[in-house]
Amino acid sequence: MKTLTRDQILTSNYPYWRYSLSYALDSLERIGCRNIEFYGCYPHFHLDDVGYRDLKSLQKQLRNHGLHAAAFTPEQCLYPVNIASFDPVARKRSMEVFRKSILYGAELGAKTVVVLAGYATLDEDEAIAWRRSVASLQELSRLAERNGVTLVLETSPREYTTTHTSKDVVRMIREVGSPALSGMIDTATLGFSGETMAEAIRDLEGHLDHVHFADGVPNGHLIPEEGTLDLPEMLRALDGAGYDKAISLEILNDRYVRNPHEAMQKSYERLIEYISGKE
To answer: Of 152, 159, 214, 208, which Cα lies nearest the Cα of 186?
Structure first.
């Protein structure tokens, strides 16, 4: 690879969600990658349960393990977090999750916060939910601007978000109208959007500030080489586009519940091999 380097790799606490935070951080320290994407989930750091004192404790634990949270991602798929909800109570609670994610992420030193734009119920006109997505993201983007954080929008099927393709992400960015809102690519969800990596890069029109890296199809977020994706080709597309931001290992599948260290270690080593041109 000409542009991509191992310094862009982030490991993460994603596969450790059935273990304590101390177990996860011990494991990530042993793997040896200093920069991580921190996944705000129970029992590690569930946003509904934590406050500023918990944030300071997390800062200390990360520092003691030689780790830096370069990105912050609250859980927003398994929990009822929906910034486009028709229910004002649910929407208000969901917005608070992201406000805390922006403020806490910024204090941890994260440059990006991963965001889903919210979703409609399947019997609702999605165009109405889209307008709620825009309004919510405008509010959150203003907060992100003030705190030096970039919100990066994911694509996913309708059950999870209103932005299903990279073109949807660009449309959302334009309608929100904030420099603090950008896009990202998740290798494991490209199959659902029907895009290749090259197409997604092109369609994002320069709005690419984060990448989630994992194997997938039909199951997602697997250790590289345990799915059917051509991950080396995806990396070559990123390399050819001069991509120089984070490539974060989102390894999250029930098959790794009992062996998260092995899952993250293998994923990290294989991603290094790909970037080094040894695939």
So the answer is: 214
